[in-house]
Amino acid sequence: GIQVEQSPPDLILQEGANSTLRCNFSDSVNNLQWFHQNPWGQLINLFYIPSGTKQNGRLSATTVATERYSLLYISSSQTTDSGVYFCAVDPFPISSGSARQLTFGSGTQLTVLP
Amino acid sequence: EAGVAQSPRYKIIEKRQSVAFWCNPISGHATLYWYQQILGQGPKLLIQFQNNGVVDDSQLPKDRFSAERLKGVDSTLKIQPAKLEDSAVYLCASSPRGLLRSYEQYFGPGTRLTVT
Q1: Which residue of chain A comes nearest to B38, CA vs CA?
Q2: Residues in A touching B56 (Cβ below 8 Å)
Q3: Model pLDDT, residue B44
Q4: What are the angstrom distances between the C-alpha of A68 and each of A3, A24, A103, A114, B90?
Q5: Interchain CB distance below 8 Å, A43 and B91
Q6: pLDDT digits (tens, 9 = 90+) for B64-94
Q7: DSSP strand pairing (A10-14 vs A108-113)
Q8: B31: enclosing H helix or E strand
């Protein structure tokens, strides 16, 4: 099956710093989502971004589908940004008739210090 | 718009007992998913429903896990009997009809299960 690798596994920042999280995937994908899992375990949707670039406030994401990677940028980080960031992909070709599913990476644990 | 609802939020049981989790997806979402998330890992798909039919249960341990979505709306996931390794967060997600194209999935708050 498809491999989804996230880096770095852990990241510690001072409040106000910028960061870049990376997601590499081993095959073509139909869908790519970025999630933030807060300390209470809730998965919060950040971006639905199978290709291209999107921005939402201090966060932005870029997916280069042809090179099989996606980047999540966090600018001017705040303590509330702490948590685990997951990348998840839908790997099956539409033509295969397979049900649409998500395969998750192992996440990046972000800690923002005050 | 209400999000995905799950209950209970927390459950502690002894091994060999049974437990059930409930999920109500976003209104109008045809596809419902159950995921298992073990501490320190990403969520892993257990079972996927399209309306009231199962489209993928290949990763569901069927000797002890079962799930149903009888009326194509809410769903129940059951574990019987539970093992220590079943301690995890069980997440429910939903998306609009998702067979011919990929849609964004939305997750509920999860149920944290501890098996002692």
Answers
A1: A106
A2: 98-99, 101
A3: 94
A4: 11, 6, 14, 34, 29
A5: yes
A6: 999 999 888 999 999 999 999 999 999 999 9
A7: parallel
A8: strand B31-37
